[in-house]
Design brief:
It is a single chain. By secondary structure, the protein is of the alpha/beta class. It has three domains: 57 residues, no CATH class; 41 residues, no CATH class; 101 residues, Zincin-like (2-Layer Sandwich). Helix content is 41%, strand content 22%. Strand 6 and strand 7 form a beta hairpin. It starts with a strand and ends in a 6-residue tail after the last helix. The structure holds zinc ion. Zinc ion binds next to helix 4. Zinc ion (ZN) binds next to helix 4.
């Protein structure tokens, strides 16, 4: 379990789960790290419950309102939404999203369908290209609604990707694809696995760090 230690002149330990899902442990200045870890371990059930509550809360308060001028990420760019009176579609045109004004109540589903379709085209094309380059055989590509993971793979050679991935810049999409393809060679995260990734994308660590830092923004 990841947590952040905040040291101060206090005398006792206290743990707190923020609405963003961070675990903060406030501790006295000189308390050893392993004692802090033991404390967190004893409270792991409580922390897990709080983390689940914080996540449910964030989901209820989706930041999306689907109003004029709001922007949505696609391939790393922010695309503005324009509501069009009388239109019966959601489409991307001239760097804007155009959505029928009467369709706003259905906007979450329409956007999801739109992103899923783009994800299928974009990811299948990139998977094929990198699979050829890495000499691996892919049995199929599935587009999922996964919220917690960007990609996964089965030993049989099927790759799964969250449709939200196409919100990310091209270089990040490449990283997730190469990561999953590398698992068809090494089914683990050993040094050999990372060397396989690094042969294709020498700067994979930068891309991975970007994804960790920004993944919360890549959502509807
Ligand atoms: Zn992995």
């Amino acid at each position: 379990m990841d947590f952040e230690i905040i040291r101060s002149g206090r005398k006792t330990i206290a743990v707190e789960v923020t609405t963003e899902g961070e675990v903060l442990v406030r501790v006295p200045l000189r308390l050893a790290r392993r004692e802090v870890a033991a404390f967190v371990d004893r409270h792991r059930g409580w922390i897990a419950r709080k983390l689940a509550q914080a996540e449910a809360q964030r989901e209820r308060q989706s930041p999306r309102q689907f109003v004029q001028g709001e922007s949505f990420p696609f391939l790393g760019e922010m695309i503005r939404l324009r509501l069009v009176e009388g239109a019966e579609y959601l489409r991307r045109d001239n760097g804007e999203f155009l959505l029928g004004a009467d369709l706003v109540p259905r906007a979450p589903a329409l956007f999801r369908t739109w992103y899923r379709a783009r994800a299928r085209e974009i990811l299948e094309e990139r998977v094929e290209r990198f699979a050829r380059r890495m000499g691996v055989v892919v049995r199929g590509v599935r587009i999922t609604d996964a919220k917690q993971r960007w990609g996964s793979c089965s030993p049989a050679g099927t790759l799964n990707f969250a449709w939200r991935l196409v919100m990310a810049p091209e270089g990040i999409i490449e990283y997730v694809i190469v990561h999953e393809l590398a698992h068809l060679i090494e089914m683990n995260h050993s040094r050999r696995f990372w060397e396989t990734v690094g042969r294709v994308l020498p700067d994979y660590a930068v891309r991975r760090a970007w994804l960790r830092k920004n993944e919360d923004r890549l959502t509807l």
